[in-house]
């Protein structure tokens, strides 16, 4: 049985590992969790003894197969609870992360599988992130950042890179959500700001915003 802290570390290592070909440094883990490097070192020893991670000096931390599955199950619970909170309880997408952080530590596998069935087996959470299934399999979506899209091409918003409350609230104000159709009509050379058409209304957004919106072609 894993402690809350151990689960949080596994989930953090999992997120930091995405797209990485090398181990994760203790400093990176400490920065993400906002704790001291010495505390990370102590936890790494515990997780290593449980065979959930492998640690090599100067090469960092990697998840073992058992550790990877455990991390995916934590992520699965978190994202399923986010779907439940938005779809069934009427929470907005900027409110659910902190609540799901608490609910993800519920241990009952039966409850989570019933929740998955009740929600009709969703494949993504309210922010567009993929939900691992009960076997840990993840269905990836072919997506890119809006900042990588050519002008005059219509794309659909499928996720956010930044899931902070501030960013999600900004998107709500601009009426940008998952499923929104977006077309870049112009890019200003001076400041790289974007003029975009969102579901038939025109707005201007910064390059920072465009670099935090995931889209896919129609």
UniProtKB/TrEMBL annotation:
<protein>
    <recommendedName>
        <fullName>Transcriptional regulator MntR</fullName>
    </recommendedName>
</protein>
<dbReference type="InterPro" id="IPR007167">
    <property type="entry name" value="Fe-transptr_FeoA-like"/>
</dbReference>
<dbReference type="Pfam" id="PF01325">
    <property type="entry name" value="Fe_dep_repress"/>
</dbReference>
<comment type="function">
    <text>In the presence of manganese, represses expression of mntH and mntS. Up-regulates expression of mntP.</text>
</comment>
<dbReference type="InterPro" id="IPR036421">
    <property type="entry name" value="Fe_dep_repressor_sf"/>
</dbReference>
<keyword id="KW-0678">Repressor</keyword>
<dbReference type="InterPro" id="IPR001367">
    <property type="entry name" value="Fe_dep_repressor"/>
</dbReference>
<keyword id="KW-0238">DNA-binding</keyword>
<dbReference type="Pfam" id="PF02742">
    <property type="entry name" value="Fe_dep_repr_C"/>
</dbReference>
<keyword id="KW-0963">Cytoplasm</keyword>
<dbReference type="GO" id="GO:0003677">
    <property type="term" value="F:DNA binding"/>
</dbReference>
<dbReference type="Pfam" id="PF04023">
    <property type="entry name" value="FeoA"/>
</dbReference>
<dbReference type="GO" id="GO:0046914">
    <property type="term" value="F:transition metal ion binding"/>
</dbReference>
<comment type="similarity">
    <text>Belongs to the DtxR/MntR family.</text>
</comment>
<dbReference type="GO" id="GO:0003700">
    <property type="term" value="F:DNA-binding transcription factor activity"/>
</dbReference>
<keyword id="KW-0805">Transcription regulation</keyword>
<keyword id="KW-0010">Activator</keyword>
<keyword id="KW-0464">Manganese</keyword>
<dbReference type="GO" id="GO:0045892">
    <property type="term" value="P:negative regulation of DNA-templated transcription"/>
</dbReference>
<dbReference type="InterPro" id="IPR036390">
    <property type="entry name" value="WH_DNA-bd_sf"/>
</dbReference>
<comment type="subunit">
    <text>Homodimer.</text>
</comment>
<dbReference type="InterPro" id="IPR036388">
    <property type="entry name" value="WH-like_DNA-bd_sf"/>
</dbReference>
<dbReference type="InterPro" id="IPR050536">
    <property type="entry name" value="DtxR_MntR_Metal-Reg"/>
</dbReference>
<feature type="domain" description="HTH dtxR-type">
    <location>
        <begin position="2"/>
        <end position="64"/>
    </location>
</feature>
<dbReference type="GO" id="GO:0005737">
    <property type="term" value="C:cytoplasm"/>
</dbReference>
<dbReference type="InterPro" id="IPR038157">
    <property type="entry name" value="FeoA_core_dom"/>
</dbReference>
<keyword id="KW-0804">Transcription</keyword>
<dbReference type="InterPro" id="IPR022689">
    <property type="entry name" value="Iron_dep_repressor"/>
</dbReference>
<dbReference type="GO" id="GO:0046983">
    <property type="term" value="F:protein dimerization activity"/>
</dbReference>
<dbReference type="InterPro" id="IPR022687">
    <property type="entry name" value="HTH_DTXR"/>
</dbReference>
